[in-house]
Amino acid sequence: xxxxxxxxVAVVTGASAGIGQAIAxxxxxxxxxxxxxxxxxxxxxxxxxxxxxxxxxxxxxxxxAGDAAQIDALVEKALAWGGRLDIAVVNAGRGLAGGxxxxxxxxxxxxxxxxxxxxxxxxxxxxxIFVRQGRGDIVALGSVAGHHISPFSGFYGxxxxxxxxxxxxxxxxxxxxxxxxxxxxxxxxxxxxxxxAGYGADFEKLTAKFGRVLEPVDVARAVSFIxxxxxxxxxxxxxxxxxxxxxx
Length: 248
Ligand SMILES: NC(=O)c1ccc[n+]([C@@H]2O[C@H](COP(=O)([O-])OP(=O)(O)OC[C@H]3O[C@@H](n4cnc5c(N)ncnc54)[C@H](OP(=O)(O)O)[C@@H]3O)[C@@H](O)[C@H]2O)c1
Known about the structure:
The protein has a single domain, classed as NAD(P)-binding Rossmann-like Domain (Rossmann fold). It is built from eight helices and seven strands, in the order βαβαβαβαβαβαααβ. The chain has helices at residues 18-29, 41-53, 68-82, 108-133, 154-174, 193-197, 201-208, 216-227; strands at 9-13, 33-38, 57-62, 87-90, 136-141, 179-186, 237-240. Helix 1 links the parallel strand 1 (9-13) and strand 2. The radius of gyration is 17 Å and the shape is globular. The protein starts with 8 loop residues before the first strand and ends in an 8-residue tail after the last strand. Bound molecules: NADP nicotinamide-adenine-dinucleotide phosphate.
């Protein structure tokens, strides 16, 4: 039987847009108290307002998900506010168009900083807390682009390959102590992601044949399902694609 999320406290990074925003809304609709974080404060305030209007509970914490000190402060604020932490959704991230030769070299470090270094730091902080309390869920956003590496968006794919490896290593480290670590690998989701990554007309051509792509809420429903499993059940990896997506 699925467990209620009432009385659970969740942190969601990258909650100002797309998948993270939908995850925060869905977790809140299932009763979780949600700490929403990103850099764009107005977006977060508006999301928190929507959640509260729907009867939910939310706290806004502005933070750069690539900055270790700001991640530490986010975790401390969440603990102080909720009195506990049960779920960490490690979602903040960005793409980068092009392969190794064609991607913009000046963006490599910034992308690695948020997609890998910051994500791993948050997983470590949440992992420490969850091990102490003997329970907790860490959900990291990977990607099909990190599952099947391809020249298209290859360097971005390497960040998602890396975070899936980090998540699996952490799962093995903490699963014996009641902590679950899940990697979700979505296919194409309609969000601001494509614009931020700099995907152009080629991407539109590639995806047109896939038909309808995923909406952020499609991924959010999967996250709520995963963290609602009873304590002895762990869905530790999930790939979710638009039905018509045959690449990557
Ligand atoms: N869309 C897809 O097709 C797709 C597919 C597979 C996986 N994913 C992964 O899913 C996650 C969410 O993507 P999305 O599609 O929802 O993209 P999105 O619409 O562009 O949203 C990205 C979110 O990440 C936040 N973010 C980015 N850099 C940040 C930083 N340095 N510090 C704090 N927050 C930061 C953004 O907030 P601020 O700009 O306000 O900080 C925003 O809330 C990413 O990890 C992405 O790699 C996406």
